[in-house]
Amino acid sequence: MNWNVITLRTAATLLVALSVSTLGCATFFPDEAPARPAIQDTNLISANHGAADALLTRAPWLKDRKDPLLAATFVDINNLDTSSGLGRVIGEQLGSRFAQQGFTVVEIKMRNNIFIKEGSGEFALSRSIREISQSHNAAAVIAGTYAVARQSVYVQARLIRATDNLILASYDYALPLGPDAKALIASQ
User: Fold this and answer.
1) Please, what are the domains in the chain?
2) Rounded CA gap, 173 and 24, in Å?
3) Is the pLDDT score of 26 beyond 60?
């Protein structure tokens, strides 16, 4: 029997076994969760202007751009009496896009005959849309809700007829829950 061949085979087998076990230990740590890639924010202006454009394409009857529209703060779907910086930005940017498209958008924050909860914006969904829009002679209200999830914010935008609260157009979209979106949600 050739001891050199047996020793060489044993050494090679031992080396392979040691390499596999070392690699296995280096890559498997059951107590550590795998690192998640950071969620990146989207361009809020583009996303919200896209939502306004989608509402416009779903409401072709809205031809008379002189009929006043109201843009309301978007509210937390879990509590229609609360909003955040994100809800205020969404409402503002959708209203801004309608104005850019030639629509008459009434700035209701400038009026003193509507109740505006300090730091929260104007909550069209939590009060009578009909009452608010009649006081401003508005044809429709741009309003909506948002829901915060683990990685996204789900937004439901609506164009609501002022006379009977009928939803004339609706558009749903998601925003990634990146650092800017988180900061806006945290700002009550």
Assistant:
1) 44-186 (3.40.50.10610)
2) 43
3) no
